[in-house]
Structures are given as structure tokens and as C-alpha cells.
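Researcher: Following up on the earlier apo prediction. This time include the ligand. It's zinc ion, with the SMILES given after the sequence.
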Amino acid sequence: MKDSERKISVCPKCGRTYTDRPALSRTDNETLICPDCGTREALESIGVSEKECDDIIAIIHRHYDSEN
Ligand SMILES: [Zn+2]
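Model: Understood. Below is the ligand-bound prediction.
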């Protein structure tokens, strides 16, 4: 898959635009959401608090930012 072919999508959950592969929302199993919201839903489903979700997502972003 070429990077230039990546589409820009709008996440219906947080309203942000993203170009990464979308995640499937766990709430209805058909809505496509951004990877951050997908991560958040997965974490919340195993009992991770909102604050911890924020921390984990921040760490993920730091990891990807250092790779790019
Ligand atoms: Zn989102």
C-alpha cells in the first residue's frame, strides 16, 4: 500500500481527521473510527480508566512520532 493513496477520514467519535487505517467501533461493530478512539475503546473495555487511556495514547503517539 502506498502512502500517497491513503485517504483522509473523519472520525465520527472525536471529530478529528486521520489517515491511518481505521478501527471498528466496539459499540456497534460497524462504525469506523480513528485508531486513537479504537485504542481507547479497547482499553476501556478491559477496565482502564479515562486518565490512563490518555496516558497510554500519549505514549503511543510519542513512539510513532519518534519513528517518523
Ligand atoms: Zn476518534
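Model: The pocket of zinc ion is lined by residues 11, 13-14, 16, 33-34, 36-37 (CB under 6 Å).
Researcher: Noted. I'll compare it with the apo version next.
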